[in-house]
C-alpha cells in the first residue's frame, strides 16, 4: 500500500500507491485527518495519499478533484502534470475522481486565513470564521474562488516529477541500464539503444518501487508547456458537439422529471391539482417535493408541458415581498449592533472629517444577480435499497454525496457521485438543490434513475442569486489629494446563507462582506472599511468573485468621487496612493496600454478601476463613446498580476470573458422580487452582453513575484466601476447603482 | 413521423407539437444540440433545416419540412467544417455549451454571406448568447473561417 517517509520540511510529500494494473501518484498530507478515497480499510498509522495521476494499461489519467465549469481546469491541471511527467497533453485522460475529504483545497484555506489574521488587525474572537468551519467539517473539495491553479501549481508538478523518476527507476530495474542513461518523452522511457518502454507497461513495476523524494522541479526556463499556448484538451469535443454535459447524459431505464417550485422562493406548497397533467401523454406521476412538485415523464418536453397544466395554492415567500423592503433592510444595517468586521482602520477618519470642511458622502447599490449559466441545472439520481448513484455537474461533490446519503438513509460511502462536465457555473453549481429534489423523486421510484432537468424559468427564478448590497461612503480631500475615505458595506452574509443550506454553522465575521474593499493596496492617510451584516433576505450564493463583485464597484466608485473632488486624475491619484509594487505596475500597465492622459475625443471618456481580489491585482481601463443612441463601450484594457501565466490562450479567454461578464451585468442585469417572486425568468429579461455590444479587449498578464494565481474571478470586480468612470468622463453623469441601464441607454 | 437528420432517416412516434429540439435530444439521443432557454433567446438549439439556421426549440416537429443537420452532421474530427476548424484554431470555447449553436449559426450565415463585414457578423451573431463571454474569439474565428471558405 502507500509508502510514507518521514515528513520534515514540507507540508506534503509525493508518494505512490498500487492500483489495479498500475500505479497512482499523489500527495500525502502531513496532518492526514481524512482517509484516502481510493484506499478503503486502511489501518491506523497507514499512509493515505491524495492521488493526482494514475498510470495503468489505459495510459495516463489525471485524477482531479477540481471541476471544469468552462474555465479550462482540466487542461491547466493536465499541463502541470504533463510538464514534469513528459507526456503530451493529448495523452492525458481525465477522471474527476470520487468525492473525498482528502482533496483539500488549501488555497481556499489561505484566503480565509488572510482575513482572519491580517497583520494583527483582528483579535482571537475572529479565529474561527465562517469558511474555516466548512473547511474543518467537510474538507474542502470545492471548485471555486479561482483556487485551482494556486492549489495545484506545485503539487501537480511534483506529482508529475516523482512519477517520472519512479517510472525511470522501474525502467532501470527492467533493463539493467543506469537511471542516468535514461530519458523520458511522450509517455515513454527511452533507453540509449533507442528501445522505448511505455509508461503503461512500466506502471505495474513502478507500483512496487518506493518513489524518490525531493525530485527537483524543472527550472521555468526549461518549461515545455507552461507559459506557452496550449490546445485545451476539450476543445475538439466542444467544437463538434461531442462533449457530453450533465444535461446530455442518459442512464439506462431513466425517466425524466420537471419541477415546479413555489415562485415565491422558499414558500410553502399548500396544495395542487394535477388532474390535467396526469392525463398527458408519457406522464408517469406528479409527486410532491420540498417546495413544489415534480412531474415524472418519459421525455423532458412532456414533463415540462405537463408541469404547465398543474394548478397550485402557494404560500408566501420566506423573505420580504418587495424590493423596497430589501433595500430598507440594508439601509437599516449600518449600526454598531450589526457591525461584522472593521479590519481596515488606518489613521483616524473621524478626526479627518472633523478637521476638513467639505465632507463628501454618497450611497451605492448593487442588485441581486442570477448566475444563469447557459446549461440549466440537472441531476440524475438512482436510489436502490443499499446504494445510490448520482450523475451531475457539481462543484461540491462531497456535499452532494452527504446530502443524498442523508435523504436516502444510506451511509455516505454507499453513494456514488459521478461529476459531469458543466456548461458554465459562475458559482451556480456550488449549490445542490437540484440533486436534493431529484433524490426526493428517486426515493419514490426506487431502482429507476430519475433525471431532473430544471426549465430555464425554474432555474433563473429559483437561483440563489448574488448578494444585494449597499455601501455608504464618506471622505475628504486635502491639497488635491484623497485624505480620508470611509466605506461601510452592508449585505447579508453569503457564506451564512450558503453554509446554512448545508447545515453548517456560519460563525464569525464573513470576509465576503468586505472582500475587494478592506484589503486594497492604497495608502490613504485616514482609511476605514467596515462590514455590516444585514439580516437574511432572499437566499443568496457565491456569484463569480463573490463579495468583491459588489465591493469592487463600491470601493472604486467612492475613490473616484473623492479623486474628482480633489481635482486629481483617477489614474494618477490611484498610482500615487499605491502601497505595493504589484498594484502600481498593473495600473501603470493599463495606463500605458490605454494611452491614458491622451485626449479621448469629443463625447468620449475613459474610466479606470483597480481591485485586488483572490490575491490578484487587476486594473482596467474602459473607454466609451456617448452616441445619440446611448453609450457605446468601445475598448477595454486589462492588466492582471498572476505570478505565472500557465496557458496564455486560456488566460486571455478567461480575462476577456470576465470583462464581458462584468460589463453585461453592470449594463442591464438584476433580479428583483415582487410579492417575493423573481421578476426575471429568462434571458429576455436578464440579457447580459450580446456580441454587437462587445468592445475590443486587450489583455496583459504580469508575471512578477512568486505567487501563482487563478484568473477566473479577478477581472470581474473592476469592470463595472471602470465602466461607470468612463461614463462619468464622457457624460458627467455619476452612476451609483447597477444596473446602469436604469440611468443610461447602451448601444 | 419520419425525419431526416444528418443524412439518416428516423421514424419517431411523437406529438406533432413537440419541438424539434426535444425530438433530437430525447427521442434520437442527438445531444450536440442544446437546450438553453426554450424561447429563442439564446440560440443554443440552432440547427440547419435544408441549410438554413433554425431555432429548434421553436419548431414543432410536425411543421418540419426539410432535412435536419446538427453540429454532429456538420463535421467530425478528420472531416471538420471550416467553421469548426476555425473554432478549434482560435480555441473559442470556454464551457462550450453555446458553441454548437454558435457554430451552426455561423456556418449558415457564411454560406449566405461569404464576405461578411464586422457589422454583419455582429448583427447576425448577436442572436446567440454566450454567458462565458467568448465573443472576441467568435468574431475572429468567423473571419478565419470566411477566409478559408473563400479560398477553398
From TrEMBL, chain A:
Source organism of the structure: Hoeflea olei
Presence of the UniProt keyword Flavoprotein in the record: no
Cited InterPro entries: Ald_Oxase/Xan_DH_a/b, AldOxase/xan_DH_MoCoBD1, AldOxase/xan_DH_MoCoBD2, AldOxase/xan_DH_Mopterin-bd_sf, N-heterocyclic_Hydroxylase, OxRdtase_Mopterin-bd_su_IorB, TAT_signal
Protein name: Isoquinoline 1-oxidoreductase
Aldehyde oxidase/xanthine dehydrogenase a/b hammerhead domain mapped to chain residues: 240-318
Keyword check for Methyltransferase: no
Annotated TM spans: 12-31
One Gene Ontology MF term: oxidoreductase activity
PROSITE patterns: TAT
UniProt entry keywords in alphabetical sequence: Membrane, Transmembrane, Transmembrane helix
TrEMBL record, chain B:
2Fe-2S ferredoxin-type domain: residues covered: 1-74
Keyword Nuclease in annotation: no
Pfam families per UniProt: Fer2, Fer2_2
Keywords, comma-separated and alphabetical: 2Fe-2S, Iron, Iron-sulfur, Metal-binding, Oxidoreductase
Keyword Hydrolase among record annotations: no
GO molecular function: 2 iron, 2 sulfur cluster binding; metal ion binding; oxidoreductase activity
PANTHER family, alphabetized: BLR6218 PROTEIN, OXIDOREDUCTASE WITH IRON-SULFUR SUBUNIT
Listed name of the protein: Isoquinoline 1-oxidoreductase
